[in-house]
Amino acid sequence: MRDWSILDEVWQVIQDRAEHPSAGSYVSSVLTHRKGIDKSLEKVGEEAVEFILAAKNQVPERTVSEAADLLFHFLVALQASGTDVADVLDELAARRK
Length: 97
Ligand SMILES: N=c1c2ncn([C@@H]3O[C@H](COP(=O)(O)OP(=O)(O)OP(=O)(O)O)[C@@H](O)[C@H]3O)c2ncn1[C@@H]1O[C@H](COP(=O)(O)O)[C@@H](O)[C@H]1O
Fold this sequence. Notes:
The protein is mainly alpha-helical. The chain has helices at residues 5-19, 26-31, 37-56, 60-80, 85-94. It has one domain (5-94): MazG-like (Helix Hairpins), CATH 1.10.287.1080. It binds phosphoribosyl ATP. Phosphoribosyl ATP (PRT) binds at residues 10, 13, 17, 25-28, 43, 69, 72. InterPro entries: HisE, PRib-ATP_PPHydrolase-like.
């Protein structure tokens, strides 16, 4: 099984964009959007719907692509909400039986 380090890598770059916004960065454009946090929350909603449709219609390649979009936008939204992904992982770990 592939390890999950790519999620950590993407999370780190999102932190970096939040601390040092840069022109030409998509993440920066979302985090500094005039709509504020609503922009990233809208993206999570859109990508969730696209993922659901792809999975429901059993289109494997599209399901993978939409799942990646959803994970990415979810991480951006966590940052926008001031939530540390480490707290989310701790919460999951605490639920292990
Ligand atoms: N994983 C992603 C990723 N997935 C999707 N996207 C971008 O998300 C945007 C959303 O596209 P859509 O078609 O959903 O919508 P749109 O209408 O074009 O854009 P919106 O106005 O709705 O946001 C596209 O511009 C994609 O390029 C991503 N942009 C960045 N990343 C990661 O974030 C890192 C930092 O990116 P920058 O901040 O751009 O340097 C990259 O190295 C990647 O690892």
